Amino acid sequence: MEKYDVLVIGGSTTGSWFARKMAEKGHKVLMIEKEEKKNISRAYDIFHMSKKEMDQFGLEIPEPGSKEFGFTFEGSPVMSPFGNYAKSGKPATVVGLHKHEYILFMHEKAKKAGAKIVCGAEFTELVFGENGKVKGAKYKTSKGEKEVEAKLVADCTGIPALARRQLPDTSTVENFRLTNRDVFFVVLYYVKYLDEKVRARDLDASFLNYKVWSAPSGEEHGAILGVGGNYGYDYAEEIFKTQFRKNVKWPDYKVEKVEKGLTPYHRGIYSFVDDGFIALGDTACLTKPTCGEGCTSSLVQCEIAVDVIDGLLKEDKALSRENMWSINCEYIKKQGIAFDSMRPLLMGIVSLSPKEAEYLFKKDIIFSRKILGNQGEDLDITPKDVADILTGIATGVATGKIKPTTVGAIAKGLLGMVEVTNLYNQYPDSPAGYFEWKDKADAMWDKIGSMADKCDKEILRRLGY
């Protein structure tokens, strides 16, 4: 039986980066990927990452003209529902990359660091020791089934969470399955503008109220118009057609191709680690709440994990839940609170009608540069901010710009934001207090609900959901 320090299941962005970094630290790493090399990451052609984050995590930017490189552009503003007001964050250069080619590029970097990669290798089951701890996994290839022993198994299989879901209910890592309420079904329209005077890059923007965005496609007069929604692709397409296209003036275009895929839209799992096991990236439901992007937000978690796990391996310490618990604690402080506290506020935001949201954009209330400009990162909402928001909403009600019935949804979102922040600040510093804390968190999220609760009920009814 082959033995490794780390077995990585799943070879897309998160798995490839984690495998490379652990190999660079001198550890014996095996990464298995169910797809054959030619089929890896084919759901999307183009994906985007900020240059700042690529530099931060040591992700090389390919040379212009290479098969991996697409283009660069400046970060897009968040637009009001009718397109009259824009809220921009700090200027940021975004890199467009061809995903299949760039993932293979990442594989080569991991191999050069010393990681072994096996494609066409499908994970089948976790292997547990007599003490119930994860001690490895089985996978199958065209040549048959193999079993691998590892000090750590890292689940990077994304939304299916194939290994995480095999953990027992007693695990500190949750084993729930994401449903159609817990993901965004993403539709990407690659379009070409009919008027050649239209510059696609002048239209880069995101429309939070419809979960719609526009980004470059790499063609001079082309763009990617994307939309995401819970329940199904048909729901996302209906929102795009009946709401975005109805309310926002947009140049005429021809659709040249359509791509579809999924991204998690669920609060992050409470604990990433258990004995001999870690869940990373989409498997752990780590995506930016304002846009659903998960590549670089996952690497914040991975960077913490690499440092902790490397230290434990070099000191010949067990990769137990107790010894790896600091990964949870550091992530919660560094990114988890900011991301998950945004979710209830965003649920309040999408309760607004387009006219109400347009008014708040104009007055810089909720739809402000502070809240929207940084995509939820490093967000520090003070009591004064909350008071100012409530005062602004009260003024909107008094002037007839906001319906009184809307106030409750906004207030619930703000209170939920505060409640999440307070509870996550009490995250246990060891596994000993975890299950008691988890019960409180479950009750809180049951009360808060999810973004799926805010979907258009008439459209859902019409589509049969």
Blueprint of the fold:
Elements lengths: L1 E8 L3 H12 L4 E5 L12 E5 H6 L12 E6 L3 E2 L6 E2 L5 E6 H15 L2 E4 L2 E7 L5 E8 L2 E12 L27 E11 L11 E3 L4 E5 L5 E8 L3 H15 L5 E12 L8 E2 L2 E3 L15 H20 L6 H29 L4 H10 L5 H4 L10 H16 L5 H21 L9 H15 L8 H7 L2
Parallel strand pairs: 1-2, 1-11, 2-8, 11-18
Antiparallel strand pairs: 3-7, 4-7, 5-6, 9-10, 10-11, 12-15, 12-16, 13-14, 14-15, 17-18
Concise account of the structure shown:
By secondary structure, the protein is an alpha+beta fold.
Please tell me the total number of domains.
Answer: 3
Determine the N-to-C terminus distance.
48 Å
Number of helices: 12
CATH architecture of the largest domain: 3-Layer(bba) Sandwich
Mean pLDDT, as a whole number? Answer: 93
User: Total number of β-strand segments?
Assistant: 18
Rg, nearest Å = 22 Å
Largest sheet: 8 strands, mixed
Can you describe what's shown?
It is globular and about 70 Å long. The termini are far apart. Strands 1, 2, 8, 9, 10, 11, 17 and 18 form an eight-stranded mixed beta sheet that branches. The protein has helices at 13-24, 51-56, 99-113, 233-247, 295-314, 321-349, 354-363, 369-372, 383-398, 404-424, 434-448, 457-463; strands at 2-9, 29-33, 46-50, 69-74, 78-79, 86-87, 93-98, 116-119, 122-128, 134-141, 144-155, 183-193, 205-207, 212-216, 222-229, 253-264, 273-274, 277-279. The protein has three domains: 2-76 and 92-179 and 266-335, FAD/NAD(P)-binding domain; 183-264, Alpha-Beta Plaits; 340-463, no CATH class. The mean pLDDT is 93. Helix content is 37%, strand content 23%. It is of the alpha+beta class and 465 residues long.
